[in-house]
From TrEMBL:
Protein name in the entry: VIT family protein
Membrane topology: Multi-pass membrane protein
Cell location: Endomembrane system
Organism: Micromonospora chalcea
PANTHER family linked: FE(2+)/MN(2+) TRANSPORTER PCL1
Main subcellular localisation: membrane
Membrane-traversing stretches: 152-174, 180-202, 214-237
Swiss-Prot/TrEMBL keywords: Membrane, Transmembrane, Transmembrane helix
Domain of life, per lineage: Bacteria
Length: 238
């Protein structure tokens, strides 16, 4: 079978614009680590299973809301900054088109394009104001003004994935089990699976990515368990 060149296939690259994948991965990992650490901390302190569930549920709701609002604000602020820079570049193109064309040609020459060809292409781009704006923004800011991530997609994916991740270590308690170690083991499995799934998008070894996430979560859980055990139920402040 003839191998079709990647350049001739549509969508041969993954979506790396960061609209939903980054906040989804970050949300799921944060949800897992946060609630595993919370459960380990309060469980290590000797609280009742009911209080473990209460703590985990509060961590899930508060964390999911915080993640969603944070992602929305972060992405929207970044998009507004890009929009402000695009408006600035548009004004420069309107006021000083020749200087902007020379600047574009200089950038291409610096990359190895012959001066004459770079100047010809820059002048051709200049003839189309909207295309000139897109090219200048991509060259000078490194972003595509027509392909900015959606703050709503980031917020929703982060909220949902954090909630799912935070629910995993709570499942044993919600199903009637009362063993802290079972909850932590289930959370550890969730961390490993999440890391392995992320490896699917990055072409990394799935087992290595899974072990990395498991190790990071174990360190967080170990630290909070130790603090909880040192403080204990009867050792609270006051």
């Amino acid at each position: 079978m003839t191998d079709t060149p990647a350049a001739l296939r549509e969508a041969h690259h993954a979506d790396v614009s960061g609209g939903w994948l980054r906040p989804a991965v970050f949300g799921a990992m944060d949800g897992l680590v946060t609630n595993i650490a919370l459960i380990a901390g309060v469980g290590g302190g000797g609280v009742s299973p009911r209080n473990v569930v209460l703590t985990g549920a509060a961590g899930l709701v508060a964390g999911a809301i915080s993640m969603g609002l944070g992602e929305y604000t972060s992405v929207r602020s970044a998009n507004e900054q890009v929009a402000a820079e695009v408006a600035k570049e548009r004004r420069e193109l309107e006021r000083h088109p020749e200087a902007e064309a020379r600047e574009l040609a200089d950038a291409w020459v610096a990359r190895g394009l012959p001066r004459e060809l770079a100047t010809q292409v820059a002048e051709a781009v200049r003839a189309n104001p909207e295309e000139a704006l897109r090219v200048h923004v991509r060259e000078e800011l490194g972003v595509d003004p027509d392909d900015q991530p959606s703050p709503w997609a980031a917020a929703i994916s982060s909220f949902v994935c954090f909630s799912i991740g935070a629910l995993v270590p709570l499942l044993p308690y919600l199903l009637g089990f009362t063993s802290l170690w079972l909850a932590l083991a289930v959370g550890g499995v969730g961390l490993f699976v999440a890391g392995a799934i992320v490896a699917r998008f990055t072409n990394r070894a799935w087992w290595r990515a899974g072990l990395r996430q498991l190790l990071l979560g174990a360190l967080a859980a170990g630290a909070t368990y130790l603090i909880g055990a040192l403080i204990g139920v009867g050792g609270g402040i006051g």
